[in-house]
Amino acid sequence: MDYVIEMLHIRKEFPGVVANDDITLQLKRGEIHALLGENGAGKSTLMSILFGMYLPDRGTIKVNGKETAISNPNVANRLGIGMVHQHFKLVEPFTVTENIILGGETRRGMMLDIETAAKRIEELSKRYGLNVDPYAKIEDISVGMQQRVEIVKMLYREADVLIFDEPTAVLTPQEIEDLQKIMKNLVQEGKSIILITHKLKEIKAVADRCTVIRRGRTIGTVEVAETGEAAMAEMMVGRQVTFKVAKTPGSPRETVLSIQDLSMANNKKPEALKRFTLDVRAGEIVGIAGVEGNGQAELIEGITGLRPVSSGRIAFHGRDITALKVRDRIRQGIGHIPEDRQKRGLVLDYTIEENMILEVYSQPPYSKGGLLNRLAIRKHAEHIIKSFDVRSGEGPVSAVRSLSGGNQQKAIIGREIEQDPDLLIAVQPTRGLDVGSIEYIHKRLIEHRDKGKAVLLVSLELDEILNVSDRIAVLNNGELVGIVNAAETNEGELGLMLAGVKKGEGTA
Ligand SMILES: Nc1ncnc2c1ncn2[C@@H]1O[C@H](COP(=O)(O)OP(=O)(O)OP(=O)(O)O)[C@@H](O)[C@H]1O
């Protein structure tokens, strides 16, 4: 059998946890091989081993049939293994070409020849259908295009094996389609791909085979064409998963959040959000749908107080909070699951229990007479860890940095929901979560609503918006296109609204 990569019986232990416990993954030449597993199952660890960032405690790695020790990422690069990370590693003010040749040419003592490099980038771009402009500046191009720059960077360095780590998490639906085409072009040209993703639909759309791991162990490798989404989900979590949440119609009451004529600027546009008006009531979930960059980030920054408003008014329980400080808004009962968990959600070097009290540490029972009540803090953290299934090596005292991405996310969601805010703002709450965790988080959002609280859900996933919300407000280019009842709309109608077509305008 023609395998480009074989990882055989890999074991890797961290304090308190066996992240990889006898994992075997064999990648055939020219295939797209999905790697599927719950949050914390050990996918990133396995890929870090392949990329030379960790050495395995046990097991063998073969590249093109030859046993190899991959002691650092440079060795991985030399062996033709490249990785597109979730967080791009690009220098914003530099051009595409400058970013791609950064570090490479000078080390070999060659003169920097931008033009030759740009030409090669153009050729690669054409050959694989990437459409990358070698002279564009990174800060001026979309997230989807930045990802393509990362792909060209690997091709430029002659990578044969490409690892994609949750590549679609940051992309729009159109960009996802384009990326899938690109991945197919890549394998047609002889490259081999490992795709880490939680999205079963995407596995069905592009992958040839799929290896499923659970709690550090290989469960099996399946042919994707012969395996249904439900079967893959069940292999992964060890039980059946329902893909649609059970939800009764909401019974909205008084207005909790009232936004009137809100305009917001951002670093690039004076009117990133234009005269936006919306009420969110107790006992309802309002979804904000929109393609990334259409004003949702600014709207949330306005409500939470992270960015000053240009004009307009925000009222919470009838009181004007437009000029209130962030901390005071939290005290009044506004909870926020932020979009960027590492920048705004967590202090990575603090433990789980310290992160669980960031907003309330000075209040009883966590603080008494100016001293922290360690016992109360521990109990609170343990409750969240248990309810939200936050997996870590050492429980409440694990540094948050050591948690897998999905488990960091579950910890933030747990913290915000358990604070029981009157208004919960959830921005992309399930990004990076496995299907089992998504099912649970959706249930908790609906329970929060059913307790009579208001929920504002911002998501790029139309499925999520449609399944969880009661009403949906659609944003396009900073403007409210319309508000529809979730029960009376569908993906088609929302898709048109996302493009700016108002309800009733039609396309006939
Ligand atoms: N550097 C580290 N130190 C300590 N523990 C770690 C470290 N890296 C990972 N772990 C632990 O190893 C386990 C596997 O984590 P890993 O990041 O590989 O999971 P994953 O499958 O990629 O999860 P996700 O889907 O959430 O990204 C987790 O329990 C995590 O807490």
Automatic annotation (TrEMBL):
Keyword Acetylation in annotation: no
Protein name in the entry: ABC transporter ATP-binding protein
Superkingdom of this protein's organism: Bacteria
Keywords in alphabetical order: ATP-binding, Cell membrane, Membrane, Nucleotide-binding, Repeat, Translocase, Transport
Membrane-related topology note: Peripheral membrane protein
Limits of the ABC transporter domain: 5-240, 257-502
One GO cellular component term: plasma membrane
Keyword Protein biosynthesis set for record: no
Organism from which the protein derives: Paenibacillus aurantius
Xref: Pfam families: ABC_tran
Major location category of this protein: membrane
Cellular localisation: Cell membrane
PANTHER family membership: CARBOHYDRATE TRANSPORT ATP-BINDING PROTEIN MG119-RELATED (PTHR43790), GUANOSINE IMPORT ATP-BINDING PROTEIN NUPO (PTHR43790:SF4)
Single annotated GO MF: ATP hydrolysis activity
Family under the similarity heading: Belongs to the ABC transporter superfamily.
